[in-house]
Ribokinase (Thalassobaculum litoreum DSM 18839), 306 residues
Amino acid sequence: MITVFGSLNVDLLFNLDRLPAPGETVLTREIVQLPGGKGANQATAAAKAGAPTRFVGCVGEDGLGAPVLASLTAAGCDVSGVREVPGATGTAVVMVERSGENQIVVGSGANMAVVASMLESVALGPGDTLVCQMEIPPEATAAALAAARRAGARTILNLAPARPLPPEVLADVDLLIVNEGEAAVLAGSAAPPLETARGLAAAHELTCVVTLGGDGALAVTPDGRGCRVGTLAVQAVDTVGAGDAFVGVLAASLDVGMGLPNALHRASVAAGLTCTRPGAAAALPDAAEIDGRLSALARPVDLGDG
């Protein structure tokens, strides 16, 4: 069972010919409201990929969270752990240009009311997986990871958005997922991704996965062994949900017993497929679509132990 502890947003999507420069106004006819938030997106991705999944987080009393909860439920995710709190539901403004590049601004709203005690009703234990991100208060994420570690559950942290973390928090993480920028923030240097991953894995005794955008992803285990996977060849429409697809499907694949290389392969395929459709949660592929395209992407390459 996967428990995703994190953020839930309403996404306001603006499709543009090009992204605005600083101080510039760019007009577009199209405004689309979609479910989003890293936590909700990752929970949706995991559920659609075939893993039993539940989401724990907060929505505001403004009613804007209802469509997001409906989307999670439709994907097969248990939302009984979601709490309604005073104030606004988290809202993101997402601007996407024709090339697929994007800019995002997030108003956290109810996500700042999420606390680790909300996990008490979930009863995490061995065989469970907790997935966290950084769009809720960092102290809530830290406490949740510690509680899951004490309970014997697998812990996955997607350090997005990036921020430095004390070693005691990373000590409670089994699998760290970062992009190149996030890895540099955490490591405090801009070394090559493989070197950074090996350093983080060794220093904190965790498995470190670094996503590389169009170049795929690599993973290094605590003993220093690494593997790397490429990306699915697609015509990108919108890259907004790709990272969350990767995290959710990687978690789902590990949760059902896949080894790390197979899970990495499946997650990369899912991320590529997500780029072929607009939006975040609405673009996430299901298990049949993912597994039907596995043969289109080469298997991960073993990088040895350095």
Notes: The chain has a mean pLDDT of 93. The radius of gyration is 18 Å. The CA atoms of residues 34 and 194 lie 35 Å apart. Residues 2-8+35-90+110-304 form a domain with the UDP-N-acetylmuramoyl-L-alanine:D-glutamate ligase fold (CATH 3.40.1190.20).
